[in-house]
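Possible regression after last week's pipeline update?

I re-ran a chain I had predicted before the update to compare outputs. Posting the input and the new output here so someone can diff against the archived version. Not blocking, just want to make sure nothing changed silently.
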Amino acid sequence: MAPTLWGEHLSVTCDQCGFPYRCDRRSVEAHNSSVCPNCGFADNPRNLHREEPSQRYIVDREFGNLKRWDIVAFQYPTGEDRAGQQGVKRIVGMPKETITFRYGMVWNGERPVGIDWQTTRDAMITVFDSRYQPNAQSGLPHRFEPRQGHQGWKKAGDCWSFQPGPTKTDTLSFIDYVHWRCCRHMHARTEPAPIEDYHPGDQSQSRTLHPVGQLYVAVDLDMSQQASFQLSIVRPAGTWTAVVQGPTSKLIVTLDHLEAKVLTIDQGDLRKSTLELSTIGGTLHAYWNGKAVGGPWDDVSVLPRADGSIVQDLSDTVNAATISIGAANGPVLVNRVRICRGIHYFDNGATTHAPRVFTLGADEYLMVGDNVANSIDSRSWNKAGLPKRAILGIVKPIVGQ
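New output (post-update):
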């Protein structure tokens, strides 16, 4: 159930960028080192890793009604390898639903099911955090690069600063995120690659990685009242954008230029502010300084057209999601950028390109672990639906372990 709940594992701080992370014991024992999921440094030695026990939790047996995304304890069904043993998984399908896994999301019928903000945050996996930069001796480039022909951006330590030129213009100048694989692979560490569903808890597992189109981005910024700032999650099916306009005190969120919300903000909040965007789970979220900017919205860009076709192939590896940051008119300091991915759902038991359909009975639930690629759950059971009587209670992690 990692990252929400970890079993016995190892923890370490990257020797090159200082990023703290957790990983599985098997990979470290096999290679005598682990790979940092933030910078890709592959030689964090075994002796720096700390042994960590399984995370503890309580089971609330007086749970009443169950909801999608609840984490529950249950008994494995009769006839399965772990029959009678206790398991912990997340509910992804509810009674009488018809569930498929498509494009990294859970679908009920012909619509993806939305994910609430708290679940989104609880189950995120960090892809990149600019607070943790590789040391100068590594010779590695920064993960954001100015777009060709765009001026005004300069790297300042682990930050980026923007200063407008002498000629006033409303045209935004951009820097774009460049991702590279932070796992064991045969290519150069800095070779550009799509963001994929790699899990740092499974460093020993060899499998085909899936491009990810569902991301969360948080930017800590300090901008002048004259400046404009833009944050975009660019995906095959649509671009989710937030624009902060200092002169008009407006924050505007759009999907492919279709306006979703306009919020009036306090100009005093332009200093030391945080902007968050998420496209995880077919749900669009936008937050400014910890407060929701309207929404959440259904991600209509992933829904089929009237003829049943999809707007664009969401599995396109060339056009996986990425991040763009733009500024104009006044000074902007980007203090920190954190990029995370959500749970990328897929059916590891499917034998054809067509998604398997899981049809649930009137008292059945579909269970999947958060570590989707390494979870024994409904997708592999003889009968996918778990009856409610087999559920022991709702799991609540013990905070502050």
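Follow-up from reviewer: compared with the archived run. Helices lie at 25-31, 117-122. Marking as no regression found.
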